[in-house]
Amino acid sequence: MERAPGVLLGRRKAIALAVPVAVVLAAWVAWPMLRLLGAALEPGVLARLFEGPSSVNLRALANSVRLSVLTVLGSAALGTGLAYALFRYALPLRRVLAALAALPLALPPLVGVLAFLFLYGESGILPRGIQALAGLERVPFSFDGFSAVLLVHVYSFYVYFFLFASAALKGMDRSLLEASADLGAGEWTTFRRVVLPLLVPSLVGASLLVFMLSMASFTAPLLFASTEPFLTLQIYNYKMNGAMDLSAGASVVLTAICLVFLVGIEWRRSAEARTAGKGSPAPPLPVASGPARFAALLLVVAFVTFLVLPILTIVLISFVEEGSWTWQILPERYTLVNYVSLFSQADVFAPAWNSLRMAVLATGLNVVFGVAAGLLIAQSRLPGRAAIRVFSVLPFAVPGTVIGINLILAFDEPSVAGFGHALVGTFWLLPLAYFIRHVPLVVRSTVSALQALDPRLAEASSDLGASTWMTFRRVVLPIIAPGILAGTLLTFVAAVGEFVASILLYTVDNRPISIEILAQLRLYDFGAAAAYSVLLMAIIGAATLVVQRLGSSPDRSM
To answer: Do 230 and 303 have their domain in common?
Structure first.
């Protein structure tokens, strides 16, 4: 037989599929990274970058690392505490809180930062409201600089700890908790001596992921950091000032740090796969006493408010008439004109249309490439599949700012990878950036689905005389479709609201909705900026519903 048992692709078909996959990875992932590395290693670049003990780049690096450490600690406390509370106790509104806990994942980064600016900034609703109620001369607090960035990060990233810890807690054997209670241990002792050691692998994985994401963060520092330097901002500032060599040097430093954490994440994934546990989860304990139940209800309501208030703020501000909200606590006049203009004027709707078509284009390419690469990785015995796996995961560790610099350096002049054209300044560079940045999403979801596939199904189809294509189409694809759809949704959602690479690569012809939101914010047209944000959230919500509907539809291909 040409293919080994349990392997869908034989050697010839694997080679035929590997050639285009390898070409894409070489031209659009490896080549831009090599151009970046070459620019960064030019004589004197790294020395100039960190010249002197008072170098702004050393402060930027220190700020980025400090922010990431504090983000991990804050997110771990919030996310793990919430997961354990929902697992262990029958809290009031428990199902509502569990459903809303993952809400920040669906909020585009720029929209989330905008909401925090409207809520907690110096002219925000809450500081001004407290000032008026207390009769103070100045606002009692306002989030700006490092503390504001940290708050946005904890809000955005606690979800990873919540999801990782929740998955681990669901597999915890209830007998462990019962045995601890029988031995007289209290809740704190049980958590510290029994639960926490079992959560350590998941918490380590979440910590590695959140640290890497925090290091790569750009949007919150851009809008809140004020004069505080961060590594991602330095990359952007050097590029805007024409110092591409220093921008490349800072990009290499940031990417090297992220790569270290990506290696840690991959190692943790393989370790958790080898040591996956199972158990019967314990039923939640009732909160019996009246005062305790009331306190629990207050905490739940406070947390739900913390989750939902940013979204409600964006919706409220989207009805604000331009110029009617300056020093007031709440806007004085409301209007539908922001939405009327958005849906009736072609030039106003153009950024949304640009984002939709670029996201659809990039997502389509990601699905085709992701399924092909996933098949090679999981369903072939080709010697080079390890390299394909490495380069398919690599963009996950490359921050959006670095991808933008990569592509500028690689495609600022005609090249084979650019089909003989200089892509900088054209429409096509931005969807290419979306594609590259989100390659790992569909590849990983496809590989995970294929690894869970029972190999006997494909073998049975082959034994009955079906071709490889028919086996894939009629047997394998219907089974792995939910995994592919999940990766497709993540890719589309990330692409349609993408901001970090966009700010470096957009042109007048393909200005996306995220750039238009920032432009309206800088023009102080808060209503228009919020209306675009609401539209973006609606697009993401609609895409989620469509994918869920497709995933739950019965297969009719048979």
So the answer is: yes
Helix axes 439-451 and 346-378, enclosed angle (nearest 10) = 40
CB 65 within 8 A of CB 141: no
d(Cα 218, Cα 224) in Å, to the nearest integer? 10
Angstrom distances, CA of residue 517 to CA of 62, 115, 513, 543, 558: 30, 12, 6, 20, 46
pLDDT tens, residue by residue, 24-50: 999 999 999 999 999 998 888 888 888
94 token code pair:
């428990």
Domain that holds residue 117: 55-315
Q: Which residues of 44-82 are buried (b: 16+ CB within 10 A; e: fewer)?
A: ebbeebeeeeeeebeebbebbeebbebbbebbbebbbeb
Rounded CA-CA distance 215/218 in Å is 9
DSSP label at residue 165: H
Same domain, 350 and 267: no
d(CA 123, CA 117): 8
How many domains would you assign to the chain? 2
- Quick one: 257 and 358 in the same domain? no
Q: For position 345, which CATH number holds?
A: 1.10.3720.10
Q: Please choose, from the candidates 409, 512, 490, 402, the residue with its C-alpha nearest in 3D space to the C-alpha of residue 446.
A: 490
List, in sequence order, the alpha helices (H) in 216-345: 219-224, 231-240, 244-274, 290-317, 337-344
The helix/strand/coil state of 285 is strand
Categorise residue 227: left if φ over 0, alpha if ψ from -120 to 50, beta otherwise.
alpha
Contact by Cβ (8 Å): 426, 508: no
Angle in degrees, CA 157, 158, 160, rounded to 5: 75
Q: Tell me the per-residue pLDDT of 71-102, one tens digit each, with 9 for 90 and over.
A: 999 999 999 988 888 887 777 778 888 888 88
CB within 8 Å of 419: residues ≥ 6 apart: none
Q: How many CA atoms does the CB half-sphere of 433 hold within 13 Å?
A: 35
Please determine, for residue 430, whether its predicted confidence score (pLDDT) is greater than 80.
yes
Residues 6+ apart with CB under 8 A from 305: none
CA distances from 332 to 138, 325, 432 (A): 21, 7, 43
Stretch among 325-339, 342-356, 518-532 having the lowest mean pLDDT: 325-339
Q: Verify that 275 and 310 share a domain, yes or no.
A: yes
- pLDDT of res. 279: 52
Euclidean distance between CA atoms 258 and 74, whole angstroms: 20
* 3-state SS class at 142: coil
In the beta sheet, which residues pair with residue 58? none
Compute the distance between CA of residue 415 and CA of residue 420 in angstroms, rounded to an integer. 5
Is residue 387 a contact partner of residue 29, using CB atoms and an 8 Å limit?
Answer: no
Closest CA to 515 of 332, 321, 350: 350
Written in H, E and C, the secondary structure of 169-209 is HHCCCHHHHHHHHHCCCCHHHHHHHHHHHHHHHHHHHHHHH
